[in-house]
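User: Hi! I'm working on a homework problem where we have to compare a predicted structure to a textbook description. Could you give me the structure for the chain below?
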Amino acid sequence: MMTSPPPPRPLSRCNALELSTVTKRGKKHGLVAYGMDRLPDEILIVILSCLNLKEAVRTSIISRRWRYLWRFTSCSLEFLNQWDGNPGTWVEPTVFLSWVDQVVKLHQGPSVDKFIVHCQGITDESPNRICDWIHFAMEKEVKVFELDISCHDFPDLNKFLSISREVKPSVDRIGLTSLTSLRLVDVNVKDEMIEYLLSSCRHLEHLCIKFDNYMKKLNVLSSSLKSLSIFYCTKLKSLTISAANLLSFVYGEASMSPVLKLQLQNVPLLSELQLKGPHCGSFLFEPSEHSKYSHQLQRLVLNVPMLDVVSAPRHDHSLFGLPQLQCLKQLDLILHARAGESFLFFVLLTTACPFLSSLGVVMFYDSLASKEAIATGLRRYNRAKADLTAHGHPCLKVIKLINFAGYRSDFRFALALLQIAKSLEKIIIKPGPGFLGAERIATVRERAKQLEANLPQGAELLIVSDLQIGSDLRTYHKELNC
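Assistant: Happy to help. Predicted structure tokens:
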């Protein structure tokens, strides 16, 4: 580990240095000639604060005067140690986190806008590390605080309050009161701690919790929160949300999670909803449970697991048994189905969205579907087909089909969409990923071209190049927004 240099002089004395301290390196870069080094330290620090951390630290080699100036900046402290295939961009986690600790210890500026630590790989379980970082975030009045590290726990409420009193012993409002955004990934945090942060951080607008093993019953009560993301919280059984200014809610359910009791009680401004996992079934097949907010949604993303939507007898798949999405303009579906299984239910779903203008569908296939399941799906669709074709869809302009495999099921799905999309302008098709083989890709392209004869007047068919699609939900969004 790098030894700590001697402490810097007080800021008030920094600008008393003479130009004689400028080294040959400084002269080489023209600092004297152009007057850069004539500026007061306060102005130089403001300039350095516009740089990122690495750029600011690099200026320390310019001259002796510049050596410690970066410590006084209010720039964002972003520490990213993520594997991208290049060994030169990744550092062994214990070494990386020790470097983060060192920078935190050396920084002497009055404030920091962002404090972000992302470290992939197994890290050491230092119990005081996150406590020290929280102490730093409170002291510097951090606005954006993000931790993405494994094998660490966020302190409980008593420990958190103890840290707060150390930082601000004489102030009534203690804690991370300046916080506007908090993101915790692979950091276990308890319900009561999150609820305290929501009540004490009056300016908190964005909250994301991912891969948590402690939360069981969370009540989100906030007047400032605008976006909320909860992913893969393995023990979460109950989630109640009352947030008058909430615009976006994302929920991703882990495969082994308990059945979630989700209640959105006061969300009058909610316009974007993203669901991943079994809870999609509740939204699709129990519309009355979501009627308080579904009618106001403008964007909906459903990452649907392999639900047997075509053969479940208890579900009403008629036009009258669907969620009512009167304001929806963009619908993105990530569907996991058996190869050959009917997608026609989701044609019915578009009829519940009278103002839908953009539909994106990513299709993933597993084993072959049973003949019974396919037949059931076709019968249910045919019962509503007359109403579908009679009314059509007046607003649907763009359709994107990703991972199109040319099976009878997805061909019929595409054909049915073309039959109802009266105002369609463009349908974009991406064939399935490269593991299908060159011959199969050629077949898929040929099947896609067959749809051209069924295009509404003036509509365009665009077949784009193959692209392997990852499993991360952000990748799906990128694909659907291509």
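For your comparison, note the following. The first strand starts at residue 77 and ends at 81. Residues 1-34, 310-315, 466-474 have pLDDT under 50 and may be disordered. Good luck with the assignment!
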